[in-house]
């Protein structure tokens, strides 16, 4: 009962024992039962307790009842990415005197973890996740599913080295969600992203389509852009696709992002469209879009490194910039990657530097000894495909047939 929970909170805040609170009113045992909701009690007793504690019990009851609605509104604002509303509700919840001791404590802490992930504070989120797992073994079905969702998002947002194991963990935990208990189809989007990261195109498209329908139904236009962009990534290699139609879809999404003031999404879409032109060896157009993407502030430093790497690689492949300029940018990227301790981008920029300097012997040696083993260890499928193929062709061209045969076997195992 809410009255008992409120009485207990204010009694402990006042530093009173159950005996002290009940003195002249009832026994300590009866106070204990009231606080735990284990017995019936009269309104007069609650009134006397309230007077002794100096609280308005009816006001406190209404405040506690309102927490549930506030938590729902906070979650919705986070899903909708309405940052001002998110901050406003956060302050209101923090002002509640017994938010951390109420029956909503676990729900509140879970949403705090989601809030920290939204603000790129993964370690704070992970600390909360661990605390909840230890301190709240009996979560409600909704809270348990919310925990799975937040764990999945954490794994997706916590892989500077693009380790495939993180995406696999994300898929595993997100697949445990029971949508009937949870009622939040937003998690389909995170499943789509996880499948995209391991290059599972069919599953990524399937869940992105589900997420898109949900976002459109709820008028969540910002997230709809995210979902459709994931869908476009899956169909980019379809030889039967009308490429110009895909370009128009990208341009429409870029325009929508600009109209909604979502510059981070615009930058992501420009980068993705640049990649589509790069895959088709239309380097001048690829450079154009990568350059536009770089001109927009990236949401995270890792996003910036991705765009910079694409830009330098494209200019080098298409011979579109001076090597001195590209070398400076590649070294800048490598330096930032070291600061971020991003093993993936340290390696990618080192490979770019070797190519720009035309140090091809060192380039292939580095792929063989460092880069490819790293990509295989982290199960980075796209890098395994690209650099495994390059090394294989180098072995064949240089008559290292035994190494080519060994690599082809290892290569097939790595991508199976």
From TrEMBL:
InterPro entries: Cro/C1-type_HTH, HTH-type_regulator_Rgg, Lambda_DNA-bd_dom_sf, TPR-like_helical_dom_sf, TPR_rpt. It comes from the Bacteria. This is Transcriptional regulator with XRE-family HTH domain. The keyword Iron does not apply. PANTHER family: TRANSCRIPTIONAL ACTIVATOR, TRANSCRIPTIONAL REGULATOR-RELATED. Gene3D superfamilies: 1.25.40.1000, lambda repressor-like DNA-binding domains (1.10.260.40), Tetratricopeptide repeat domain (1.25.40.10). Keywords: TPR repeat. TPR repeats lie at residues 267-300. SMART domains: HTH_XRE, TPR. Residues 7-64 form the HTH cro/C1-type domain.
């Amino acid at each position: 009962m809410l009255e008992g929970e409120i009485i207990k909170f204010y009694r402990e805040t006042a530093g009173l024992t159950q005996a002290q609170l009940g003195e002249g009113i009832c026994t300590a045992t009866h106070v204990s039962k009231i606080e735990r909701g284990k017995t019936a009690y009269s309104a007069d007793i609650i009134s006397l307790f309230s007077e002794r504690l100096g609280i308005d019990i009816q006001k406190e009851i209404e405040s506690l009842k309102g927490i549930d609605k506030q938590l729902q509104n906070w979650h919705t604002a986070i899903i909708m990415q309405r940052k001002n509303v998110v901050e406003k509700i956060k302050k209101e919840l923090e002002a509640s005197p017994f938010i951390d001791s109420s029956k909503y404590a676990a729900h509140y802490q879970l949403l705090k973890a989601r809030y920290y992930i939204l603000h790129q504070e993964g370690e704070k989120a992970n600390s909360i996740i661990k605390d909840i797992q230890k301190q709240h073994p009996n979560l409600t079905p909704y809270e348990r599913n919310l925990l799975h969702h937040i764990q999945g998002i954490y794994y997706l947002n916590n892989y500077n080295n693009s380790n495939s194991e993180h995406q696999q963990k994300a898929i595993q935990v997100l697949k445990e969600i029971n949508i009937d208990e949870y009622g939040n189809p937003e998690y389909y989007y995170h499943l789509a992203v996880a499948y995209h990261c391991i290059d599972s195109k069919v599953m990524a498209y399937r869940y992105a389509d589900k997420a898109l329908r949900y976002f459109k139904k709820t008028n969540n236009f910002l997230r709809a852009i995210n979902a459709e962009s994931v869908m476009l990534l899956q169909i980019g290699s379809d030889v039967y696709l009308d490429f110009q139609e895909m370009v128009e879809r990208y341009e429409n999404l870029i325009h929508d992002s600009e109209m909604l003031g979502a510059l981070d999404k615009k930058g992501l879409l420009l980068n993705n469209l640049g990649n589509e032109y790069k895959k088709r060896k239309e380097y001048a157009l690829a450079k154009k879009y990568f350059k536009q993407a770089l001109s927009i502030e990236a949401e995270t430093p890792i996003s910036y490194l991705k765009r910079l790497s694409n830009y330098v690689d494209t200019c080098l492949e298409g011979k579109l910039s001076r090597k001195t300029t590209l070398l400076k940018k590649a070294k800048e990227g490598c330096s930032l990657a070291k600061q971020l301790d991003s093993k993936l981008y340290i390696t990618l920029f080192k490979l770019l530097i070797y190519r720009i300097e035309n140090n091809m012997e060192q380039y292939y040696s580095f792929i063989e000894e460092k880069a490819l083993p790293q990509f295989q260890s982290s199960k980075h499928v796209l890098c395994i495909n690209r650099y495994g193929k390059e090394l294989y062709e180098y072995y064949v061209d240089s008559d290292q047939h035994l190494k080519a045969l060994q690599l082809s076997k290892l290569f097939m195992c790595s991508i199976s």
